[in-house]
Design a protein that fits this description.
The protein is α/β, with parallel strands linked by helices. Helix content is 31%, strand content 23%. It has a seven-stranded mixed beta sheet, sandwiched between helices. Strands 7-6-8-11-12 form a five-stranded parallel beta sheet, sandwiched between helices. The structure holds 5'-O-[(S)-ethoxy(hydroxy)phosphoryl]adenosine. Keywords: Acetylation, ATP-binding, Ligase, Nucleotide-binding.
Length: 635
Amino acid sequence: MINKINTLGGYFHEYQKSTLDPESFWAQQAEFFFWRKRWQHVVQWEFKTPSIRWFDGGKLNITENIFEKNLYTHGDQTAIFWEPNDPNDAPRQYTYQELFHAVNQMANSLKREGISKGDTVIIYMPMVPELTIALLACARIGAIHSVVFAGFSAQALADRITNAEARLVLTADQGYRGNKVTPLKTVVDEALSQCQGVERVVVYQRAYVDVSMTPGRDVFWQEFISNASDDCVATEMDSEDPLFILYTSGSTGQPKGIVHSSGGYMVYSAYTFRNVFQYNNGDVYFCTADIGWITGHTYLVYGPLLNGAKIVMYEGVPTWPDAGRMWDIIAKYQVNQFYTAPTIIRSLLSMGNEYLLDKDLDSLKVIGTVGEPINEDAWHWVHDHVGQSQCPVVDTWWQTETGGVMISPIAGVTPTKPSFATLPLPGIQPVIIDNDGVEQTGNSVEGNLCIRYPWPGMARTIWRDHERFRQTYFANYENVYFAGDGVRRDEDGYYRILGRVDDVINVSGHRLGTAEIENAINEHPLVNESAVVGCPHAIKGQGIYAFVVCPQTSTGGEEGVKLSIKQGVNKRIGPIAKPDYIQIVSNLPKTRSGKIMRRILRKIAEGDASSLGDTSTLLDEQVIDEIIQGALVEV
Ligand code: WTA
């Protein structure tokens, strides 16, 4: 079993070992797994190019570590409890053995289709067990999966299909989320009319509704897997072969395809899952994240399944049919570890405590949060009311790029402090660097969060754009990974994440690049230009505030234009990127060299025009007065 830290002293001991001799530390963790061939080097790295290789020379398949390695001991144990959107529909369950067969059958079907090691497969599916099966089937045969969140638009999907060079798409007829139905197949059809290369679309029938099927290209899931054997020998992977690509937003318009490895990611996801959540065999673990995001990859699929965990996978949304749904699910499955996002906690908190009345939450042992800073109110509410002051709350800081949790309490071991991610996990060496590149040592300091040494779960590259990988994470400061977040280390050495320091905003825990949203707005025929910034939002954490230059508002008037801008963003990216505020302005504040002064717009959107800082480089200072007067929030 993976080493588990049980005491604070044990944590400090492991941490020290991991920094004094990282190679021995990680080799020891890797011993737990089944390698077809042992690695030759634990790690080889340099951050200049950068080149990062973990367990080089090792051969493995991650699914062999989920299945074959464990079937003798817990083949009959539940792997997935699946809870449907509608509480009146029948739930489903898979044991490890059953999941293994389903994965193999899909794997063989993909092979029959000609998909093999190194090919990319796009997965655009709702939260049904077949989504997990799809990921693992790809991993089984060495195909690189790229899951696209099922809330993304046709255009966003087409961009990702093109960038990933996928030949095959796995989707469903429809998805259910609360009282909404998403016509996934229709979105796929629209996406495929805008891109090339896809030869096969496999459609899982979730709703059994009529969908248009293109002859020769589209096939239903049942038909696709029919007659395929449920026995499939895993494809041998090199430790450094890519396991998956997951797209995320950066400061420029184009999403980045973050690439994760087979060996290092396996070790890191499993190690961090076991330790952060203090998972014990037999516990029931529930993660609310969609598999379309990294949290779903690492802590709903790979981390838990590598540990033989029993997971609860939920199809719907937290507030449907009412705001007690999460608590019903916890009671129904007697959930022990509950991993969710601050935005969900805030939205449930805002609906009042009555939804918690009479709910049996006694099984809970650990509550985790991820995705954005958790404010103190939300922390206290979840700690006092959901955890009944009995459960440690682990505020876990990490990113798509880091592969797994980096800074977080170890549940029940690390003393917590509301809104603090507390201390780094073993193997993780955070450093704080100011804007001039000077490291801030000691406690009570603040600056840019960087990491000094590689860790097995870190991303290896951006798909087909290694130079962008270098520039984004390794070029700002020498010899460290730059996370893009601001951080404070307090007087006790505890870390508090302060939020992004780049042009990325975090809406309900979803990362969006402001440039991405601006591009979508600028496609509107009446818009000349725009600037997007984040603004405080009680539930979402950050909302989206767009300043738009739009000289003619045509027949629909201002409101008509705003509505069509929102529709445009919805179509280009998806509903999560729709602005909360659109302010039509005659001009944007620009420097003489033509650069938009976002700092000023950010302040206005935050409702604070009292300290705009130096505005002397502005071309036209008057424009600021106009923007403040027309502001849509109280300034
Ligand atoms: C933010 C999600 C504060 C942060 C796993 C980071 C957090 C970005 C926390 C990554 C936390 C994530 N406290 N901020 N506990 N967790 N973030 O790639 O800004 O979707 O850079 O990965 O979310 O978002 P991503």
